[in-house]
Design goal:
about 190 residues, mainly alpha, 5 helices, 2 strands, about 65% helix
């Protein structure tokens, strides 16, 4: 991996960029979505918001999905390219394999949530959503935060752990040759 090609460096940069945008955007979207609910309750709506304000909050949440979905897709497919490119180094660099597995595990709940976001955006694009109580919003927005609220943190934790593995690089059995002042070479792992 010391002789990285320009292509590999570009894909590593796209991977990092995608992870940062996805993670940051997802956290912002979650903060926007929870704004209409009373904190520390079982998702009881705040009474000071009108129905149109709640609908606008859902619209902001759905619009932000465009950025986070593209960023996650960019990170995911860049991660696949990186894994394929570095597959010969898996025996000496176990952290690459562990990071890839965690990225794939995070993709399962994330692609499921992307489906929900797409359905919500299609509802807004077809202008079929007029009130917050619309069945489409109840199914793809409210259900996401009531019954499926464990999926997104799972994806966050998987990706965060993958990034930590990339930084710390455990199970790296690369041999480094060190040459001393007397010209003697030593090998370290």
């Amino acid at each position: 991996m010391q002789q990285n090609s320009i292509t590999l460096k570009i894909f590593i940069t796209l991977f990092a960029f995608g992870i940062v945008i996805w993670l940051g955007g997802s956290i912002i979207r979650t903060a926007i979505a929870y704004e209409i609910y009373i904190p520390a309750t079982e998702l009881h709506l705040k009474q000071e918001y009108s129905n149109s304000e709640r609908l606008q909050t859902v619209r902001l949440f759905a619009t932000g999905a465009l950025y986070t979905e593209i960023a996650f897709g960019l990170a995911f497919f860049s991660g696949i390219f990186i894994f394929v490119r570095l597959r010969k180094e898996l025996k000496t660099r176990g952290w690459i394999f562990m990071s890839f597995i965690l990225l794939c595990l995070s993709a399962i709940p994330e692609f499921y949530m992307i489906y929900y976001d797409l359905k919500l955006n299609i509802g807004f694009l077809t202008s079929s959503l007029k009130t917050f109580d619309d069945p489409l919003i109840m199914k793809y927005f409210v259900l996401r935060f009531t019954k499926l609220n464990f999926l997104t943190p799972l994806a966050y934790l998987s990706v965060a752990t993958s990034v930590i593995l990339i930084i710390w690089r455990p199970l790296d059995k690369t041999i480094i040759k060190i040459t001393g002042k007397d010209g003697h070479q030593d090998e370290q792992t």
